[in-house]
Amino acid sequence: MENFSFHSPTYFAFGRGKEEKTGEYVKQFGGTKVLIHYGGGSVLRSGLMDRVKKSLEKEGISYIELGGVKPNPRSGLVYQGIQLCKEEGVDFILAIGGGSSIDSAKAIAAGAVYDGDFWDFYEGKVVKKALKIGTVLTIAAAGSEGSPDSVITREEGMLKRGASGGALRPVFSVMNPELTMTLPAYQTSCGITDIMAHIMERYFTNTKDVEFTDRLCEATLLTLIKEAPKVLIDPKDYEARANIMWAGMVAHNNLLGVGREQDWASHGIEHELSALYDCAHGAGLAVIFPAWMKYVYRHDVSRFAQFAVRVWGCEMDFANPEATALEGIARFESFLTSINMPVNFRQLGAKEEDIPKMAENMKLGNGTCGNFVKLTTKDVEKIYQLAL
Amino acid sequence: MENFSFHSPTYFAFGRGKEEKTGEYVKQFGGTKVLIHYGGGSVLRSGLMDRVKKSLEKEGISYIELGGVKPNPRSGLVYQGIQLCKEEGVDFILAIGGGSSIDSAKAIAAGAVYDGDFWDFYEGKVVKKALKIGTVLTIAAAGSEGSPDSVITREEGMLKRGASGGALRPVFSVMNPELTMTLPAYQTSCGITDIMAHIMERYFTNTKDVEFTDRLCEATLLTLIKEAPKVLIDPKDYEARANIMWAGMVAHNNLLGVGREQDWASHGIEHELSALYDCAHGAGLAVIFPAWMKYVYRHDVSRFAQFAVRVWGCEMDFANPEATALEGIARFESFLTSINMPVNFRQLGAKEEDIPKMAENMKLGNGTCGNFVKLTTKDVEKIYQLAL
Q1: Phi, psi at B5, each rounded to 5°
Q2: How do residues A102-127 score in pLDDT, each as one tens digit?
Q3: Checking phi first, is residue B159 left (phi over 0); if not, alpha (psi -120 to 50) or beta?
Q4: Does residue A234 belong to the interface with chain B, where contact is any CB pair within 8 Å?
Q5: Is B229 in the A-facing interface, judged by CB distances under 8 Å?
Q6: What is the DSSP string of B80-105?
Q7: How far apart are the two ends of chain B, measured CA to CA in Å?
Q8: Considering only CB atoms, which chain A residues are within 8 Å of B137?
């Protein structure tokens, strides 16, 4: 196990009706002038926006609004938000929505107290200072409600890049599973896939003796495998929604990744897919992750066999561990299909001829991505090929 | 699942050598005048105290000391600490040691900013204000390094009682598994038992649909069952010590208990044992928990069968789930014996004739303790009897 620091100071308010206390939380964490940042009409149509505004008004907190966040959130709106915050003296950003709204809010929060171009943070500069951020989560997926990360796409060149830093962790997150009940089945499945991917990026590691975090990863995956079919059968199954929503946070606040080298190649490889085709991140991950597994599993057959046995209930083939490893990957792929996720380029609508461009866009040069197996541009091309 | 809040803001610095940065952490969290609070000679003999002092001096932080914390920490020393803090203008309490030193430090931290008797908090008053607390942990057991709880014994009547409140969560905890390597085997096993008990107090619940927290509880128990024998064979097994130490924190920062009714009867029943005989809390729990299980398992045979199958690897007897439930309890008891814990009064040195007095000391009156099954004084007596 490697040395680590773990700091997850976000206050999580979980359960029915908690959004009605949003104003209290903003006040508790010192917000006085709020920018409400959100996406499209569902937040308005559902009445959620009204409930949140009412709770702010009850506490005497003033606010302005900036809607229009798109999936794979863009830098254009971020610049707009930063300018707005500076002009209006905003001291607190409240994101309502899923990962896109929260990530966009984080970019604004960092840019509003920075003299340079906020994109610097998405080129590697660590975020040490930002306006305070609160969230009202409506999609179980990105885990951004408890993470120090943000991903933004720059229109110029359609570059999708991530920023990170403790200052980006929300001070509070409101998590009411009821708010996720109206999410379409496809988006629900994309979210579940994203959560699983966050766990697997941490699970496949070369660090030895991380039994505890292994077990926590497996526990979270087992939960998702059991609860996912329930919400597809009954989108209003509160209990299943609740288990998935909380798992989505735990999967990405890094409790499951401490003390170990993490991989994150599949996320990078997927980002080029969603940047180019504007597909849902979760759907792209469903296409990339099984292909990545098929490409790298020989690097550590035992770990993939453990994944197969403990997560997918495969019986260990002691005479042929590789068969067990492959069975685990196959069951994972079957699971993705069972929740109506695409598992190849054709199903996603991606094109073979774009492969060299996407691999090139990762800008690995002579370098590599990933840690479990270090992948060159050539390797990345082969993984895209395996996903055709 | 029930509504809940989760807030675990402690900064955890985990791994080799981290104690040498204690001064930096104190500074980071605003401490300027520190009371170092600790137990006996091992902290001095090992050189740990010197390393911590050096790190404080390096940051120009002044400190005073108060040693002498005993297992099952007493109110007498707490009063002394409170007076010292008030006289010397202390603004930060640094506990070095295990749960006893940390719990005593928490009591001092609360009492130092309170006009009344600190014992009020141990009679039910919630702690809302306290001096900041940091810890350098040397025993994996109590989980006090990440919890908002403290347990103190009042000499008068030997009453052992708990206090709680967000202000009691340490702002940072240094966790270096090497510091636990010199712990005697018996204390190591007591710690492991205490950690398991913290999980099981949360696991046995009447709240339905808590699949995710169930899985996290099981993951943590599975880790302890696998790692415990390793440290008894080789006390210097860093990796096993590390997995156990981190599991001890996760077991008690309440991640494993959110959204569900928790039990805590066994802790209450045990507290009378350790208050009367001054035995180790973990040893007392090893005696009480199997007896509690035998007394209550019929209340929810399915849950005990799940415990048996998922945690103890029992095969489910579908024709006779009760047999599976009982097998799980038996395996738990065997495990405790395998790590040299006492599992009955005789082995602990407790006396049958003290049972009525201990049950009476819980002061249940016409009330009950526990939630999984609500236990009267008569029930508690029967559980003690089952542990003879």
Answers
A1: -115, 145
A2: 999 999 999 999 999 999 999 999 99
A3: beta
A4: no
A5: no
A6: HHHHHHHHHT--EEEEEESHHHHHHH
A7: 37
A8: none
